[in-house]
Design brief:
With 140 residues, this protein is mainly alpha-helical. The protein has 6 helices and 4 strands; from the N terminus they run αββαααββαα. The relative contact order is 0.07.
Length: 140
C-alpha cells in the first residue's frame, strides 16, 4: 500500500528522530520536553571527541631536548644551518641556492664573529638590537 503524500500539517506534527524513525512532536504520542532534551544530550555526547591525553603520556615517547644551560650560539647556528639552510624536504632544498649562499655569508662574516661563544640562555634582545643598530649605521 502506497504511503500518502505528507501535507504541511503532518510534517509539522512529526519530526525525524535521531535514529531515523519518525517521532511525534505533537499529540498523545509526542516526546516530552525532558525526553527530547535527554535524547539530544545523548546524541551530542556521542559526537564529542575523546578527552585529550595527558601531556606526560604524549611526551614520554619523544626524546627530551638537551639542557640549554651550556648551549652556545655557535652551536645553535650550526643546528639551524644543517636543519634549515641546507635541509631538504621531499628531495628539494628548503631554501633556494642564492638565499642559502646569502644566509651562510652573513652568518660567517657578521653574526658568528660576534655571537659564536655567547651562551644562548644569557642572550637578551637589547644587546642584540644594539649590535644590529651599530651594524646598520656604523657612523652612530
Amino acid at each position: 500500500m502506497k504511503q500518502p503524500t505528507p501535507t504541511l500539517s503532518t510534517l509539522r506534527a512529526c519530526n525525524w528522530s535521531l535514529n531515523g524513525s519518525r517521532a511525534a512532536t505533537k499529540g498523545r504520542n509526542a516526546l516530552s520536553r525532558r525526553q527530547a532534551e535527554t535524547a539530544r544530550d545523548r546524541f551530542l555526547a556521542a559526537l564529542q571527541p575523546p578527552p585529550p591525553t595527558p601531556l606526560a603520556a604524549t611526551t614520554a615517547s619523544f626524546p627530551q631536548p638537551a639542557p640549554t644551560a651550556d648551549l652556545r650560539f655557535g652551536q645553535l647556528a650550526e643546528i639551524w644551518r644543517r636543519d634549515f639552510v641546507e635541509g631538504q624536504a621531499g628531495g628539494r632544498a628548503l631554501v633556494a641556492a642564492s638565499t642559502r649562499a646569502k644566509y651562510l655569508r652573513h652568518l660567517q662574516n657578521h653574526v658568528l664573529p660576534r655571537w659564536r661563544d655567547a651562551p644562548v640562555q644569557e642572550m637578551r634582545a637589547k644587546p642584540v638590537l644594539d649590535w644590529l643598530q651599530r651594524k646598520v649605521s656604523p657612523g652612530i
